[in-house]
Amino acid sequence: MTRKPSVDQGAFARWTTRRWLRVGVTGALVALAVLGALGGWAMWRTSQITTELVDRRSPALIDAIRLERALIDQETGIRGYGLSGRRDFLQPYSQGVTAEQSAVRALRPLLRSDARAGSDLAEVDRLARGWTERIARPVSSASSTEAVRIAAARAAEGKTSFDSLRRALARQQRHLEDERTAAARDLRAAITLRNWTFGVIAALIVLISFLVFEGLRRGITDPLSQLSSAAREVARGRFDRSVVVAGPADLRQLGADVDAMRRRLVAELQVSEESRALLDEQAADLRRSNTELEQFAYVASHDLQEPLRKVSSFTQLLQRRYGGRLDERADQYIAFAVDGANRMQVLINDLLAFSRVGRVHADHDTVNLEDVLDRTLDTLSVAIEESGAEITRDTLPTVVGDSTQLGMLWQNLLSNSLKFRSPDRPPRIHISAAPDDGVWRFAVSDNGIGIEPEFQEKVFIIFQRLHTKDAYPGTGIGLAMCKKVVEFHGGTIGIDPDHRPGTRVLFTLPVSADASDGADASDGAGTSDGAGTSDAAGAADAAGRELQP
Question: How does strand 428-436 pair with strand 390-393?
Fold first, then answer.
């Protein structure tokens, strides 16, 4: 025999939260709708039976009793008048006739839809008319004497006729009572059904509420709590913990996505750890290289200086003692040796100063650039006087930095402007400063020979020169040192490509938090410093805008 395929138990596992909610809400609404319809029917049925009992059955029984009382009053009045012959005994009869008519008029519409009750009423009405025609009317319309005679002659017939009427009335009332009892029983049954229906609805609402809360707890709250707990564990650094979430398919997918993100973070952290290890290794190499550079600087400043001074001293001694005694070529060789020793000593001093930027002088204090520039101008006073330079400046601010390095910055920039002046006009140098979005923007402008655009980046590279040492002395370190000083202070430096004639060096320094408002830049001209000369003062420390490839 063939086996029927079983229901796929895994189908529910593919249901999402939305589908569970949709199915649950639909099922609850259907159940509530069915029970609500049943409850509505029960209330309608209860109302219908109550109306039947209150508006028809009970009034019909009451009117039947009134009819019986009216007929009894008529029989009492006729019997009293027939025995005594007194007309006042007919008063109950007259009232009974009126009451009978009223009761019959009330009963007829109440019993219109009940065949048996209508038949009972017709039987009572027939017997009542028979008794009225044979007994009541003849007696009530006769004189006193005649009424006594008729009543006596028809006493047996009247008794028999009224007894039949009594029995018909009793039967009618019994049937109406039975129908009233049945209606009351139906009403109690309808009330019981209504109460049970609303009880089941209340129980179903409680059950649905419980299922909703339990479903939310198992399908949403618990999985989300589990997911958040796992996410917090991962956030604390436990990247080895897998994120596994139970519940609907979409929440399980969310957990899988979070776990995939965790695995990706683990992979990226591994790469980051490897990169950090490589960076640590490179940092160690860099520290070792810096240490070697410091050792080289020490050697350059001590061990190399002494033999270099000896070479320079002896070559100068040879030049003084034997100058003019040897032939012209020997004097030229001696001059070459002296010049080479001097330039080597200048180069070593410049290299030593370049290597010390950011290491030896690294104090960050409040520095008044006005004072630093004044000291620099005083140092360059001979070169300024000799070149006939005119130097103007804006009001300079106070910044945070190292005063020694900032002095080196001013000295190199101004020395370059003096050294690379145009032969056709006296040097004109202007120093400006202006605040701009958290930094001070400085500019050192001159009217010298200028720098071609293709060399404006290369001039900041160490040992790069644009001219030969015969045309302009120097080591090619000056602007490289300026760049190192500015960058050490958190700024930038460059050449303005649009400035003509001459050169404009632009650089920035961070604004000091406690700088005074009076240090803001203004457009007015500053002081003019003039006169003086000495290549040793300016060119020894600067010496380097031009680059020789």
Answer: parallel
What's the per-residue H, E or C state across 265-316?
A: HHHHHHHHHHHHHHHHHHHHHHHHHHHHHHHHHHHHHHHCHHHHHHHHHHHH
**Cα 369 from Cα 399, distance rounded (Å):** 7
Bond before 497 cis per omega within 30 degrees: no
Check residue 470 and give its pLDDT.
56
For 74-104, how does the pLDDT look when each residue is reduced to its tens digit (9 = 90+)? 889 888 888 888 888 889 888 989 998 898 8
> Over 90: is that where the pLDDT of 69 sits?
yes
What single-letter amino acid sits at 57?
R
- Give which of 66, 64, 68 is closest to 117, Cα–Cα: 64
What pLDDT was estimated at residue 167? 92
Structure token pair of residue 522: 């203004």
Which residues make beta-bridge pairs with 430? 392, 445
* Amino acid (1-letter code) at residue 454: E
Name the most confidently modeled range: 317-326, 435-444, 530-539.
435-444
Cα–Cα dist 287/300, whole Å: 19
Q: Which ranges in 388-475 belong to alpha helices (H)?
A: 403-419
Distance CA(273)–CA(313), nearest Å, equals 57
Long-range pairs of 98-106 with CB within 8 A, sequence gap ≥ 24: 98/70, 99/66, 99/67, 99/69, 99/70, 99/73, 100/67, 100/70, 100/71, 100/74, 100/128, 102/66, 102/70, 103/63, 103/64, 103/66, 103/67, 103/70, 104/67, 106/59, 106/63, 106/66
pTM of the predicted model over 0.90: no
List 367's β-bridge partners, or say none. Answer: 399
Instruction: Summarize the confidence of residues 170-178 as an average pLDDT.
Output: 89
DSSP 132: I
Q: How many CB atoms sit inside 10 A of residue 197's CB? A: 19
Question: Which tokens belong to 168?
Answer: 């018909």
Please provide the DSSP assignment of 59-78 as one string.
Answer: HHHHHHHHHHHHHHHHHHHH
65-96 burial: b if 16+ Cβ within 10 Å, else e: ebbbebbbbbbebbbbbbeebeeebbebbeeb
